[in-house]
Structures are given as structure tokens and as C-alpha cells.
Write a structure and sequence with these properties.
The chain contains ten helices and eleven strands. By secondary structure, it is an alpha/beta fold. Bound molecules: nicotinamide-adenine-dinucleotide.
């Protein structure tokens, strides 16, 4: 068996086209979806991520503004800007680019974002709502994985799902989202003993550990769906995921590549969450998680 490759760029394109259509409709009703991005300090990777988010917004027709603060800005000043943006009706999404400089209490800053504009889904209200299956804003990376599974018509209900990685931004929300879809979910992490005894049971294996070649073919059930969230820079400068792609694709039924898999989905789902927030601002009963 050779796996079908899940083309994250194609899925992202489809979601962006849907977002662009909704955006055109909103604009005809006088509303332009707006994203505000807060960035503090000079982290080079953060600047690239922010530039990518702004570019994606522009392509889809959203309005976006970057609020860049020097690293030594007092946290009270950043929080005051967030409160101003919370009250601005032209802003439908607010994103605080992490990490923040060490003197910031990142949890407090994120908590300052209105839960109705928390397009990253990191506010404690949205985290709690995710546990109950009612979140306004599913976190972008696991939401992207869910869209990829939907795009390929891969059933989740009743499937054995193994999530490798238990971070707050990927592994844990991923597990909750798939549990909400009635999968049987196992979460593994760095302290898991004998990872393979769990991964071999997976009908759907989602890997987000940040360890190249963590998942080898002998750890994967024949016919499994394998989603590789990991992004690792190899010594030769190339990007790789956490899965031995060439080996595992000989056994899996579907596999997502790195690059070109989950990566393009994360920024796309940020755009999606912002557009849905704008839609909700004109039709409050609309559920953005659909
Ligand atoms: P993290 O470091 O916060 O968490 C990693 C998780 O993996 C932890 O729960 C840890 O216990 C677990 N882990 C580490 N080594 C392990 C091992 N040997 N066996 C089993 N579990 C192990 O990382 P994160 O922010 O969740 O990101 C994970 C990976 O996903 C990284 O490579 C990151 O770059 C990538 N990522 C990609 C996207 C995207 O858009 N594609 C978005 C976010 C993160």
C-alpha cells in the first residue's frame, strides 16, 4: 500500500476561497473582517509568522493591522492596546504573537483579549468551551488537521486516534476536538513508555512532538491515516516533520507531508476564525466552529 498524500495547500486553498466568498458578502453589507496582530520584541521567527498572517489576510480580502512594540515595553501598555482593540468594532480578531519577552506574564496578556475576538483560541474561556465542545474559536493548528480529515472524507467517529504530543496549542486541543467527534483518543507525550505500543493501534495518528523521525514504519498500522504536524529544521537546512515520510507512506492509507501539509492550514484557519467572528458580529446566532 502506498499512501495518498494529503495536500495541505489544496485544502487551504479551498478554505480560503470559502472565506473570500463570505468576506465579499460581508463587505457588500459594509463589514470588512479585521485582524489585529500584537507583536512585542524582535524575534525573527515571530516576524516571519506575522508577515505570513498579514499576507494571508490580504489575499482573502481581510483588513489587518500589526501593532509592534519594542521588547522593553511595559506589559500594562500592551494590555491597554488590547483593551482598546477589544472595544473597536472594526476589529473582529486579536492575536498576540507568542512568545512574549520574559518580563511579560503571557497568560495575563492573552487573557486580556476579549473571548469574542480570541481567534487563536488560547483564552481560558475558549479552552474551557473546547472541553465542553462549544468553543467559539477552535485553535488553528488542530482545526486545520480536522479540516484536512474532512476534506479527504476520512471518518473520525469510532476510530482509534492516537495523538503524539500533549501541548496546549496542538496535542491537547487536537485530542479534545477528535473526542468531540466520537473518536477513541489516546494522548502520548515525552514520558510515555513504549510509544509504539500505542501508535500501532491508531486508525488515525496525529504527530506533534517536534522530533524528526520519531515515527517509523514499524510503529504504524497498515492502512492508518498519518498526520504530521511537526516542523523540524534538519542540519542540512531542510524542513522535516516528525514522521519517517518515505518509510511510513509505504504502509499508511493517507499521509500529510512536511512541508505542504498542516503548515498552510494553520494560518488559513486563523483567517477562517477571523471571518467567522466578523460574520457573527452581523448575525450573532452564527456558530463559528462549523
Ligand atoms: P511542544 O514542545 O510545546 O510540545 C511537544 C509535545 O511533544 C510535548 O507534549 C512532549 O511531551 C511531546 N514529545 C516530545 N518528545 C516526545 C517523544 N519522544 N515521544 C512522545 N512525545 C514527545 O511543541 P508544540 O508547540 O506542540 O509543537 C509540536 C511540533 O509541531 C513542533 O515541531 C512544532 O514546530 C510543530 N508545529 C507545527 C505547526 C504547524 O502549523 N504545522 C503549528 C504548531 C506547532
Amino acid at each position: 500500500m502506498v499512501a495518498k498524500i494529503i495536500d495541505g495547500n489544496a485544502v487551504a486553498r479551498q478554505v480560503r476561497e470559502e472565506c473570500a466568498a463570505i468576506t465579499r458578502d460581508l463587505k457588500s453589507r459594509g463589514v470588512t473582517p479585521g485582524l489585529a496582530v500584537i507583536i512585542v520584541g524582535d524575534n525573527a521567527a515571530s516576524k516571519v509568522y506575522v508577515a505570513n498572517k498579514v499576507k494571508a489576510c490580504t489575499e482573502v480580502g481581510l483588513h489587518s493591522t500589526v501593532y509592534a512594540f519594542p521588547a522593553d515595553t511595559p506589559d500594562t501598555e500592551v494590555e491597554a492596546e488590547i483593551h482598546r482593540l477589544n472595544a473597536d468594532p472594526q476589529v473582529h480578531g486579536i492575536l498576540v504573537q507568542l512568545p512574549l519577552p520574559a518580563h511579560f506574564d503571557a497568560r495575563r496578556v492573552v487573557a486580556a483579549v476579549s473571548r469574542d475576538k480570541d481567534v487563536d483560541g488560547f483564552h481560558l474561556y475558549n479552552v474551557g468551551a473546547l472541553v465542553q465542545g462549544e468553543t467559539l474559536f477552535p485553535p488553528c493548528t488542530p482545526f486545520g488537521v480536522q479540516k484536512m480529515l474532512e476534506y479527504e472524507n476520512i471518518p473520525v467517529e469510532g476510530q482509534n486516534v492516537v495523538v503524539v504530543g500533549a501541548s496546549n496549542i496542538v496535542g491537547k486541543p487536537m485530542a479534545l476536538m477528535l473526542m468531540q467527534k466520537d473518536a477513541t483518543v489516546v494522548i502520548c507525550h515525552a514520558k510515555t513508555r513504549d510509544l509504539a505500543q500505542f501508535t500501532i493501534l491508531a486508525d488515525i495518528l496525529v504527530v506533534a512532538a517536534g522530533k524528526p523521525n520519531l515515527i517509523l514504519p514499524q510503529m504504524v498500522r497498515t492502512g492508518a491515516v498519518v498526520i504530521d504536524v511537526g516542523i523540524n529544521r534538519l542540519p542540512n537546512g531542510k524542513l522535516a516533520g516528525d514522521v519517517d515520510f518515505e518509510g511510513v507512506r509505504q504502509k499508511a492509507s493517507y499521509i500529510s507531508p512536511v512541508p505542504g501539509g498542516v503548515g498552510p492550514m494553520t494560518v488559513t484557519m486563523l483567517v477562517h476564525n477571523t471571518v467567522q467572528s466578523a460574520l457573527r458580529s452581523v448575525s450573532p446566532m452564527h456558530s463559528p466552529a462549523s
